[in-house]
């Protein structure tokens, strides 16, 4: 396990995951995900979706990709599409952001990127959160106690606070100043995750 380096930027998706209890709606026994190191539950779907959005937003902020959204109507039903284009060379991304970046080319649709990362599976939510759990544990913010379960490392979390404060402010500004894009990213991620489930699955995501 490597010690956290406070001088390096922490990935937005990882910050959102570690501090999800401060940023996401409360969940319950049916729809909730226990944020590692806390007693708080957040809505599982919302967590996974926002981790994807944060990963893409973080790549864009580093100049690695361009994000373009559009709405298409088919039989009077609107469908969001999000196209991702690589605009920079390889970046030192980790977790979900790294895997998505590897599968982004020229105007690659978000659904195709997630399919390339996870394949056909009814467990995409678990895959998304697992990647960020492992990243947080590797960086020393969480101490593993079980399968995707862990305790926060107090001194590491304390050192992470300035990075979280900066992220939370920027994340809030993104939602406010680019509300249309943020909404499109959330909606397309939600439908893309649902469509990853094989036809024989009952869609229990």
Task: Report on the architecture of this protein.
This protein is α+β, with helices and mostly antiparallel strands and 205 residues long. It has one domain. It has 8 helices and 7 strands; from the N terminus they run ααββαββαβααββαα. It has helices at 12-18, 20-23, 44-61, 95-102, 110-118, 124-138, 154-177, 179-196; strands at residues 32-34, 41-43, 65-74, 77-86, 108-109, 142-146, 149-152. A 3-stranded antiparallel sheet has the order 3-4-5. Strands 1-2 form a two-stranded antiparallel sheet. A hairpin with a 6-residue loop joins strand 1 and strand 2 (41-43). The longest helix has 24 residues, at 154-177. It starts with 11 loop residues before the first helix and ends in a 9-residue tail after the last helix. 35% of the residues are buried. Residues 1-7 have low confidence and may be disordered.
């Amino acid at each position: 396990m490597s010690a956290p380096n406070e001088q390096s930027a922490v990935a937005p998706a990882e910050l959102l995951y570690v501090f999800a209890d401060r940023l996401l709606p409360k969940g319950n026994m049916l729809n909730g995900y226990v944020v590692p190191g806390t007693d708080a539950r957040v809505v599982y779907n919302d967590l996974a979706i926002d981790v994807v959005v944060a990963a893409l937003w973080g790549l864009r902020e580093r100049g690695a990709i361009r994000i373009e959204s559009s709405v298409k109507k088919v039989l009077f039903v609107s469908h969001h599409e999000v196209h991702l284009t690589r605009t920079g060379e390889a970046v030192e991304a980790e977790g979900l952001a790294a895997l998505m970046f590897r599968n982004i080319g020229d105007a690659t649709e978000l659904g195709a990127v997630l399919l390339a990362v996870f394949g056909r599976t009814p467990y995409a939510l678990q895959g998304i959160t697992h990647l960020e759990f492992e990243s947080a544990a590797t960086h020393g913010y969480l101490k593993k106690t079980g399968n995707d379960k862990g305790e926060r490392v107090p001194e590491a979390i304390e050192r992470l606070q300035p990075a979280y404060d900066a992220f939370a402010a920027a994340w809030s500004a993104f939602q406010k100043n680019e509300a249309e894009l943020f909404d499109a990213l959330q909606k397309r991620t939600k439908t893309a995750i649902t469509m990853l489930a094989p036809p024989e699955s009952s869609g229990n995501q």
